[in-house]
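Figure 3 (text version): structure tokens given as input.
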């Protein structure tokens, strides 16, 4: 029995962890480049975790959900780990909650699904119509001042959600209370940032030997500070990153690195840094450039506009985000986009941004897999996910996301890994190397017969399972097919 436990421990330590190679591609232990396509799984309200048994269109993330994701060519989730769920009392971690997160991680591993652990927040706390930080770290004074929105509050002093919906959720970031609380976090008032660091240290300690955990995303969409205190500073490109976020991120980085010096740390710029000012340097210094990833979101705004206008905005935003990544000399990952409906305009938006992601050879997680009773979203909790209320797929959206891609490439560098959604053509070009395999997902569309023609120069295409193929060959490989 002791030998068995020892073997399990060795296997967990030596299992397929993901690192960045010299060209900042994600790379597995065999030296193959990995590309990730998947979804956010973010349950923002109590109990801060989806149901893990059965299936429904709104609340579950179960083995059935894992099978749906895996069967359709997706291989990653960005999973919310809640600070308010993990530390409901000041300085006291809820190990049972963290163990439930670990259960989901290990359930995903059974289906070869990788995980990014993400400390999600929107509007800081439920007292401010949001989520993310616990009540003990929050003191509501005059929310939603200075707006004159009339709000009613329940017995827990939380505003009624129907009153929160009176304006777009992002506009509440201009309130006095939210601005003060983000300043408190960034300046570590009352030790709040230290408590947050202890939370992350424990997550890393519990997750460091889980082969499918890619890494840890410190904080979702951090606010640029206190709008009421300095409106110019709030909007000035890159100002909040340099004034607040660099030092805050370094603090959390140091907590994580006390227990895990290997897994990747993901970090974002402030959510208003749409012009791409970014950061002057990565948070851990040169020695950690192969262990850090710039996490970025691409949305065309908080109001719905035409797909043509949205695509023009997204094209500029994506270019600026890639400039950030290149400047920092670290990896990049599109961790949020979408939140769209199931219509032709939404499909056009998805096709455009996913074509861009292919062009820049970027991995992505769509927002989001299900609605999960999301009360802070650009869309609605009913339309942003993949499923209709009867559990059927929203086919236009789902087919746009189920696109061909090489998710495992036996190479040091990829020349092309591109699907063109308008012509339904796919191109894969690289120079192969020994010791690993190249695998491609070629989806059978849900509403059409499956026919594709392909050409493979210096290679052959071998079906290994439903919709998954292996590319076998030597030297310069060129694969082309059209659905």
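Below: residues designed for each position.
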């Amino acid at each position: 029995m002791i030998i068995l436990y020892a073997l399990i421990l060795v296997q967990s330590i030596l299992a397929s962890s993901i690192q960045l190679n010299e060209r900042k591609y994600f790379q597995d232990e065999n030296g193959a480049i990995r590309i990730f396509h998947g979804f956010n799984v973010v349950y923002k309200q109590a109990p801060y975790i989806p149901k893990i048994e059965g299936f429904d269109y709104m609340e579950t993330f179960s083995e059935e959900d894992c099978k749906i994701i895996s069967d359709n060519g997706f291989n990653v989730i960005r999973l919310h780990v809640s600070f308010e769920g993990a530390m409901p009392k000041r300085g006291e971690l809820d190990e049972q909650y963290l163990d439930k997160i670990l259960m989901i991680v290990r359930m995903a591993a059974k289906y070869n699904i990788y995980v990014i652990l993400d400390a999600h927040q929107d509007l800081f706390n439920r007292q401010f119509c949001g989520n993310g930080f616990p009540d003990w770290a929050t003191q509501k004074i005059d929310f939603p001042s200075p707006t004159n929105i009339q709000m009613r509050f329940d017995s827990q002093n939380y505003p009624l959600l129907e009153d929160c919906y009176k304006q777009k959720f992002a506009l509440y970031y201009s309130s006095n209370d939210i601005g003060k609380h983000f300043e408190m976090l960034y300046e570590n008032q009352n030790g709040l940032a230290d408590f947050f660091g202890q939370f992350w240290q424990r997550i890393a300690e519990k997750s460091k030997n889980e082969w499918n955990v890619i890494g840890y995303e410190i904080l979702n969409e951090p606010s640029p500070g206190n709008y009421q205190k300095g409106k110019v500073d709030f909007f000035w490109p890159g100002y909040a990153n340099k004034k607040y976020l660099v030092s805050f991120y370094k603090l959390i980085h140091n907590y994580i690195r006390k227990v895990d010096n290997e897994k990747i740390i993901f970090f974002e710029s402030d959510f208003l840094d749409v012009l791409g000012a970014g950061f002057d340097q990565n948070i851990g210094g040169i020695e950690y450039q192969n262990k850090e990833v710039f996490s970025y979101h691409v949305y065309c705004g908080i109001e719905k506009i035409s797909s043509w206008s949205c695509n023009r905005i997204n094209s500029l935003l994506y270019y600026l985000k890639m400039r950030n990544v290149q400047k920092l000399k670290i990896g990049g990952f599109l961790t949020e986009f979408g939140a769209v409906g199931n219509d032709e305009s939404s499909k056009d938006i998805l096709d455009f941004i996913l074509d861009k992601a292919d062009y820049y050879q970027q991995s992505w997680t769509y927002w989001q897999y299900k609605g999960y009773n999301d009360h802070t979203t650009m869309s609605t909790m009913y339309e942003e996910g993949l499923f209709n209320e009867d559990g059927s797929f929203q086919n236009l959206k789902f087919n746009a996301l189920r696109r061909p891609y090489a998710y495992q490439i036996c190479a040091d560098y990829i020349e092309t890994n591109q699907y063109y959604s308008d012509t339904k053509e796919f191109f894969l070009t690289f120079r192969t190397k020994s010791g690993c395999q190249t695998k491609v997902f070629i989806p059978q569309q849900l509403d059409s017969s499956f026919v594709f023609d392909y050409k493979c120069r210096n290679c052959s295409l071998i079906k290994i399972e439903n919709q998954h193929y292996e590319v076998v060959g030597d030297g310069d490989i060129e694969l082309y097919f059209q659905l």
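Residues 1-16 have pLDDT under 50 and may be disordered.
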